[in-house]
Amino acid sequence: MVSSSSPGSGATVRPYRPDDEPGVRALIDADRLPGQPPCTPERLAAARHGLVPPAGWAVPARPQISVLAGAGGRPQGVIAYLSWADAHTGVICWAHAHEDPPALRALIGHVRGALGRCPLIEAFVSGPPGPLGPGGLPRAHRGATHDALLRSGFTGRCQGRYLYCALSAGLPPAEPVADVVRCDFPPGQRLIVREAAEPVAEAVVSAGPDRTATVYWIETLPDHRHRGLGHELLGQALALLAEQGATEVALVVDDPPHPGRDSQAAPRLFDSFGFTLVDRLWTYQCRHPASRGRPREAGVWQRP
Description:
- By secondary structure, the chain is of the alpha+beta class.
- The protein has helices spanning 21-30, 41-49, 101-114, 143-151, 229-243, 265-272, and strands at 3-4, 12-15, 64-69, 75-84, 89-96, 120-123, 137-138, 155-166, 179-183, 188-195, 198-207, 212-220, 248-254, 276-287.
- Mean pLDDT is 84; it is low at 1-8, 51-58 and 291-304.
């Protein structure tokens, strides 16, 4: 499917081509947040051949990457999206266009047309930080993308916060409280605190070859909280990442749907280790009540 970006612009939206790679990687890196790894050819190739749907969505997806090409075919924007033939649901995974409003509207309009049969289209659904984005849309850093989605019929809500911390090379080794085992997905390590052979707290972390790292998950069972286990566990996890060469680490904290007694525990924990707020992450939906088909329920990132 090909469409014009705006009257008289001469730009068109077309399928991704192998020779688009340098321009597309530059578009992605232009929106990179602190703590995110750069978009290498290998990471882009992995995304092209296997865009990962949200956790819990088991049906096969059809990945599509479209490029807004200007004069000479040079990429001015890129958008990636998924659809499910049996679920009549679509997802915009990521979009980059140097925050140029006309280019963003052209890309989003192209996807809305391609997914016109879907009664539900989601965009920037919840997920962990990755090489091609932080999971949701960083609202302050990507204001033009936010506005383009709203102008295209999407509604949005804040679903989490992206936090960042610079790791000191001289970070002292933490007292080990957890067993460390390999984790296949996401690739990294799982740290498990046990009492009487039963796991009571765990974290999942990963260090990349470019000195960036991610904390994917940290949790303590409710009846073992308020005993300092989370602090000890995160201290060991960060020391492990520093030993592996990481100099900066990022994580996403989900906003609880029903804030309660423990809703401030995680922010206090991360603040005590020097994590700072980079941006708030938004997710979006666009519904077509008149469309046929039953939409699949929205997926959320869950622990591996």
